Task: structure prediction
Amino acid sequence: MHNKIKILFLANTSWYLYNFKSPLFNALDKDKYEILLVAPNDSYTHFLKKLDFSFIDWDLNRSSLNPFSSFYSIVNLFFIYKNFSPDIVHHFTIKPCFYGSIIANLTRVKTVVNSFTGLGQLYFMSKKKYSPIKILTFYIYRIILSTRNSIAVCQNKSDLYELEKISKRKLCNSVIIPGSGVDTKYFKRNKTKLAFNCEPNILFPARLIKEKGYSELIQACEILWKEKYTFNLVIAGAIDYGNNSFISQVELNTLKTNPRIKLVGHVNDMKTVFENADLVVLPSWREGLSKSLIEAASMECPIITTDVPGCNDIIDDRVSGLLVPVNNSIELKNAISFLLNNVNIALDLGRNARKKSKLFFDISLINRMTIDIYNTF
Result:
């Protein structure tokens, strides 16, 4: 029997590998591929191990800029690559792409796939004046993009354009794969929605970090409540302490004191949450391709989001949802009030959103596009 192709998947959290990529792992031919999952140990590691793939804990502090911590993570990764000797490595998120690309060069890995899952921070940074952090970040991206035998995977055209600006050349060895996909057969309403709840539920399905636009949403909701609109705001997302823009304790305490705001935290299975939502609102500043919006679309939820990459790739304005300007709580408030006052229009938008989700974002399509990359080499 021929030797299996060894493929190593690397991410900055076990949570990411499990939530975004476990359908891909399961779709791979086990007779053809030997799979190794590498990520820091967290609360999702035991879920990964239940998938019956080999797993190695990677020592990484994803929010740290300490050079000694980074060096230790790189050395740790070197021995993982050296011992496994992968034929293909697939890196997700920036630190794994950077560290993994360095080690892949040193260990002569045949094929390197670097998935850029979103360029939000980089995009905002590019608008600022030159700084040491910006120069260093651009240098890191250029190293990743110049890795031999590598292919860059972006989730939208805007991100690919940004990477080409940084590298100052056309990235011929690149491909756009629209997100991680969604199981549209699972994320489907149990019954057709004909009306909103007496007290509508507006759902914010994201981590509590500034870039997700939670502050603008709170401002919009406060105005609507003052105007005597009756609804609940449901926040389904954890505080991401690994991100430097996580919500402050003071802000969190303020949210907790508001009886109209329901903090449900991180939810493992969002289907029921979407089923009970009347509107889904995500005023994100920028996304790679928002999985929560794709899931919401698959569930026929009326969606309001921002007219930015990674959101407007999913929602067509006034066809499958409403798009509002980024960082604009007044326009956000107007969009929410419009759909609360026009339930039939909202429900039509939700039905159209599901049609697009099935056509472009179904998990089987996304997995096929990814596996085709592995088969190319």
Observations:
- The chain has two domains: 5-180+363-376, 201-360.
